[in-house]
Each structure stands twice: as structure tokens, then as C-alpha cells.
Amino acid sequence: MNIQFDEKNRVFKLDTEHTSYVMAVVDNEGFLGHVYYGAKISDTDVAYLLRTDENPMVPSKNNRDRSSFLDTFPMEYPGNGVGDYRESAIAVLDKNGHSAVQFFYRSHQIFDGKKKIPGLPASFAKETECQTLEIVTEDPVLGLEAVLVYTVFAGSDVITRSVRVTNHEAETIALTKVMSASFDMDAEGYEMLTLHGSWARERQIEQRPVGYGKQSVSSVRGESSHQEHPFVALVSKDATEDQGKVYGVHFVYSGNFLAQVEKNQFDTLRVMMGIHPQDFCWELKQNETFYAPETVLVFSGNGLGGMTRNLHDFYRSHMIRSPYKNKKRPILINNWEATYFDFNTEKLIAIAKEAKKCGIEMLVMDDGWFGRRNDDNTSLGDWQVNEEKITGGLKHLVDEVNVIGLQFGIWFEPEMISPDSKLYEKHPDWAIELPDRTPCRSRNQFVLDLSRKEVRDYVYEAVASVLRSANIAYVKWDMNRQLTDLGSSFLDEKHQGELMHRYVLGVYELQERLMTEFPDLLLENCSGGGARFDPGMLYYSPQIWCSDDTDAIERLKIQEGTALIYPLSAMGAHVSDCPNHTVGRVTPFATRGNVALAGTFGYELDITKIPEEDRKLIPEQTAMYHKYNDLVREGDYYRIASYAKNHEYDCYEVVSKDKKEALVTFVQVLNRPNYHSRRICLKGLQPDRNYQIEGDKGVYHGDTLMHAGINIPNMWGDFQSVLIHVKAAE
């Protein structure tokens, strides 16, 4: 069993293959304390770690100093306003206007498998693959129940947490904060690792010491955002890719979030993850339940690389549902950077014909095919084909592309509405807006109020009717602006604080309906590039557009941060034209292909106009994709060197699960004059197995390749790259 309850000592112990998570119930009142999380331990009765035998004692023995107890005890799910001055996991507004809430242990159940969370994405597994603990806690004053849910995925070294809160009293109560996970631990010199960014430079790794007080990353933009990512890790000072302690916390949610680490006066840490409480207020009537999103917890005693590989395996096996998750994705060519809004049927067919010659398998028609959409100022919401551009209609175009031998994909931005659109003329109240205020537009567009059922139904039918009209195999679902002017003409004054969360639930409902009606559709989520790259989106789409910045060198940093926690198969990555449309850099076409190979792989260029020497390389690159994609998609990822840290070169490796094959990607960003070759040491091989390097007649033991390494010959010029293919010797 992976979950044990020591009834005598009232201790819960959750075990994965290499980790343990321990809680204990103390005192007559039933305080639930966090005891331990880390490397796997054998003993169950470790409640002594709670220090309740020290001063101050538990309230039953020393209630005159109850505040001292509450201010120091490592609460598993801390309440609000009752004596614990650290960050609370939950807060309310009751009938008296009070915010206090405190939960006590009442009961629990342990069962095989895992329940779904209504309306929310969450991990899944067969009954034999996981085990769940539900701890029922209660605030007896408020009649409020919080069920703390823990699921153990032993094989992935992952524990997930979520919370559901139910009001059992006749009086309505408002939730003003509901965190999904909280745990306390000793501050042993940990550093805080986060992923920050902006448009075109998403998920940049930052690591800094944890100081006293609260340090956090968050988003109140209505989505997980370019700027901050719903992830935080605590990393021991000595941690590297291969050694040291790492605690990772990741939020399965696509809206506002708060990820916080707090260091207090007694040198303990409180780690917290959940929906951001700003602008959040959720009303609970009698017997109504609020479901908080899921949080993924992972501990690695083998450095960042251990955390990375655990999360990759977990998301591939227990979050991505698409039938494509274990398949090669079609090599696509997207017309956005090729044509922008200036295209028609003839132009798209010309691209498709040339693409087919080069081994490309799908044409994707991006923005500009609908309404009067000749720039980004009009027509969002009017999802009817512009037959002045798409002459003969969409089905004619799709059929012609299929005859050429390519699949067809299409771009939508379903959550948006243009002020200059037929939809806005008819339904201006469908936009999220504040009355009497100058509206805050972005890209001259508004956001649709997805808290309204009629809006969701319109959006779904608009998208679905297009998909039913032709043989469309792929959808790129975009979101090019974030939320402002938080007002809904549908919600009354008591429920305006529910808008942001209801909006996210609306997005999930739409994508769930889409995948139910079109189960074989390849869905790729996107938000101005990679602003909505989060585990919640992976539940609906097996891949997410990583960034609008397709420059190969910038992508090294973006893809390093993304691959820290997401499998390579989830990263939308394309080869684009040069000078690059975002940064103006010119890089070798071969390097652009090698870098894009670490993702889904495709093209973002006008194949009819690129230099002939570049076009001739495309058949080689598409063949390379087919040769290596199974390995890249399914293998274990190892980071060998980081350009973001050394500013000279980048190197990463993917190793097959059976350790018989490896692919190393080396990118020389800056050439070194008058210098010897670069030496790198491989990782993840079997030490006593013999290997051969493609193009080299020699045979090498795995331990030699990993400890002594190989030499990378100097390459002429900056931005050069090489792939090194290693296979077990026959």
C-alpha cells in the first residue's frame, strides 16, 4: 500500500517509489500538521518532528499560549484570523462580515484510483496506478467542510493535491481565498526557482535565495501568463542537474494563480499554491461545493534533472489524454509568417504543393480567413469564411489540399470579439466590460464573457460548424489578449468576484466539448505565443505553442525553461525564415531545424520564396524528424549545458527508456578563436554497455562516454550546431 494510517499515533504516511509525505493529527481538537516531505523513509511514527513536546505545547496542555502554538505549528491547511499570522490557505466572509476560519480533522478514507474534479482538468490513472487519501476537516463554527485530497502516483514520484469546500449551514458564506496546497518545512538554505518572462521570451529560469518574509510569483491577467508561470521549486544550495534536493510545485490551472514561499521568524518555510485571491469571491449556498484546482508535488533527491524526468513521465502518462500523445505529430507548415493577412486560395495551394515535395504533411491556415479580417482590427467573433479570399469556400480549399496529399489545419481565436464585428453589433453585452469606464482594448479587441452559457454555446457552435464543414485535422486555439475591465452584465453584484474563475471554467468546458465531438482532432493551444502554457491546457491539447519568438538562439533559453517541467512532445516548435521576424537574427537553416527538433517540429515560412539552398535542406530535416521523433517524444531528457548560464553553447540529450539509444543536440552560439575542441560528458547511458556514435567506427563503454566524454570539433562561425546519435553496439 502506498498510503498508510497509523491509527494509534494518528499519522498518515504517503509513499512513492522514492519519496514520503507524512502528516499527523495532534491534540483533542484535531489539528492536522505537516510532518515531513522528502526522500523515502521507513518509519511511520515520526510525529515527534512536529515539536509539540517543546514550548509552546498543544492547546489542551497550554491554552493560555494558544497563539504561540498556532503561530509555530506546521499546519497542513492553515486557517485565517485565529492566531496563525503566516499566510492562510483559506479565508471567508461570513454573515457577520468576519473572515476567520479554522479546520480540524474529523475523518478520512483511502481508496484505489482517483476521482475526477468536476469542471476542471486533472491528472488521471487506472485504479491500479494510484491511490487516494481524502481527509475530511471541519470548521464547526461555520459548518464548513474542507476535504483535502491526496493522490499518490508511486511510479512517477508524484503526489497531487486538491481541495473541495462544502457549506453545510443554511447561511450563505463567501470564499475569498481557497489555496489548493500548502505545506510547512524547515528553511535549510533553500533557493527559490521560478520561470518568468514576457511576450517572445517566456519561461526564463531564475533562482534566488529565500529571504525572510513572503516571496511569490503570480498572475492576475486572467491566464497563467507570459510574465509568470504557475510553478515554483525549492532547491538546495548545492543542487545541480544531477544532485541535490528539489521540491517542485506545479498548478493544474490556466487562470490567475499565486505561488508563494514564506520564511518566518523561526526559520521555517510555508509553501503555497492556488487561485490568486485578488478579485476572487465565490458564494456558497447550503450544500454547495467549491472545487479547487489540482496541484502537482514532486520531490527529487537527484537534482533538477530528477524532477524534470519525473514530471515529464507524469504528464505524458497521467495528464495528456489526446490520442496523439503516443504518436508522431504531422509535420506542419503554418502560413502566418509566410503571408500574414495577405493570402488567398491560390497562394495557400502553392505553398501546399511545394511543401508536399519536401516531406511536409499538413498545411495550417492562420489568422485572416474569416469575416472582413484583413488586419487585426476587425471580425473576431464572425467565424464565417471570407470567400473573397478563400474562393470556392473552405471545403474546396481543404479538398484541394487533401488531393495534394496534405492534411489541413485552421486557426481560431474563439474567446475574443472585435468592436468592429457583426457579433458585437448584435451582442455588445457579451463582452467583458465595466459600465461608464473607457474600455481597455488590446489589439483592438475585447474578451467574450464565457461565464454566460449563451456565449459559450455560440462560441462552440461557431467553431464546431466550421470543423463539420470540411476535413480539418488540426486546430490552433489562440488567445491574444489578457483580461481587464472585470465586469459581467450577466453576473449580479454578489457574483462579480466569480467572473475570472468562471471564465476559465468556460474555456475548459468549450475545449472538453470540442474534444468530445472531435476526438481525433489535434488541438494546439496558444496565447500570444506561450502565455497559456500550463498543465491545465495539456489536459485538452497534447501540444502548446511555445513562443511567438522562433529565433533558434532565443528558443534555446525558452525551450530550456519549458523543458525543465514539460515533456518535449508538448512544445510547439517551428523552423522559420531569416532574418528572424522577431529579433532580426540570421542563423543557419540547419541549426533552426536542429533546435525545432526538440519540440513538435514544423515550419513557419513561405516555402515558395526561401533560398534554394534552404529549401533543399527541408527533405533532410523532415527525414530527420521521422528518424528521431519516437526517441525525442518518449525518451528521458538530460540537460548537459545551458547557454543561458554559460553564454557560449547549449547542449541537451534524450535517452531511450531502455538506454539503447541517445540523441545529443549541441549548439555553438559563439565561436572561440584559437581554441581546442569542446568536451562534453553524456548522461543517462548504461555504464557497462557498449555504444557506437553514428559516423564513428569506434566502440565505447557507457561509463567512458559519461565520465570521460567526447570532443565536439570546432565549427566555423557562430550559431552552428550538430546532432550526435548514439546507439548500443551490436
TrEMBL record:
Residues that bind substrate: W199, D366, D367, R443, K476, W477, D478, M479, N480, C526, D548
Catalytic residues, chain numbering: D478, D548
Alphabetical UniProt keywords: Glycosidase, Hydrolase
The protein's enzyme class: hydrolase
Any single Pfam family the record assigns to this protein: Glyco_hydro_36N
GO-annotated molecular function: alpha-galactosidase activity
Substrates-to-products reaction catalysed: Hydrolysis of terminal, non-reducing alpha-D-galactose residues in alpha-D-galactosides, including galactose oligosaccharides, galactomannans and galactolipids
UniProt domain Glycosyl hydrolase family 36 C-terminal: residue ranges: 651-725
Glycosyl hydrolase family 36 N-terminal domain ranges (all copies): 30-285
GO biological process, one term: carbohydrate catabolic process
EC number assigned by the record: 3.2.1.22
Family: Belongs to the glycosyl hydrolase.
Name assigned to this protein: Alpha-galactosidase
The species this protein was found in: Roseburia inulinivorans
